[in-house]
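4.2 Preliminary Data

To establish feasibility before requesting continued support, the project team ran the inverse folding procedure on a target of 128 residues. The structure was first converted into the token representation described in Section 3, and no sequence information of any kind was made available to the design step. The complete token record follows.
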């Protein structure tokens, strides 16, 4: 039992060290894809911003949110530096970076995918 716990802790520490700094309160992290630093969620999936969002308010709902799932923040989540939280009209919470709501993209299948960058000229990878 103790060996399993040590192995799990060691694997977790190695994963965190490999994936870049994690912002403790948010679970979000900075990762390097190729030579580009981008923001990623706790699973390592690339995060995006949407040009139609304004003043920390999401404009992406319904079909949009199916393709661009909001980076969900738990109830009671707190801002940390440039990272904040916005309440969506459905009363859920979403992470923001420099007041821009953050999203993943449904076509990204694995950590490091950035298939959403530039879609429609209004979606962009989020950069630290």
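Position-by-position output of the design step:
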């Amino acid at each position: 039992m103790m060996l399993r716990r040590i192995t799990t802790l060691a694997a977790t520490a190695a994963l965190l060290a490999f994936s870049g700094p994690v912002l403790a309160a948010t679970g979000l992290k900075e990762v390097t894809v190729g030579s580009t630093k981008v923001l990623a969620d706790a699973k390592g999936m690339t995060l995006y911003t949407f040009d139609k969002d304004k003043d920390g308010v999401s404009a992406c709902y319904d079909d949009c949110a199916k393709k661009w799932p909001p980076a969900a923040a738990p109830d009671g989540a707190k801002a940390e530096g440039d990272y904040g939280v916005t309440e969506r009209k459905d009363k859920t919470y979403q992470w923001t970076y420099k007041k821009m709501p953050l999203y993943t993209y449904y076509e990204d299948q694995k950590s490091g995918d950035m298939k959403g960058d530039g879609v429609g000229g209004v979606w962009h990878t989020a950069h630290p």
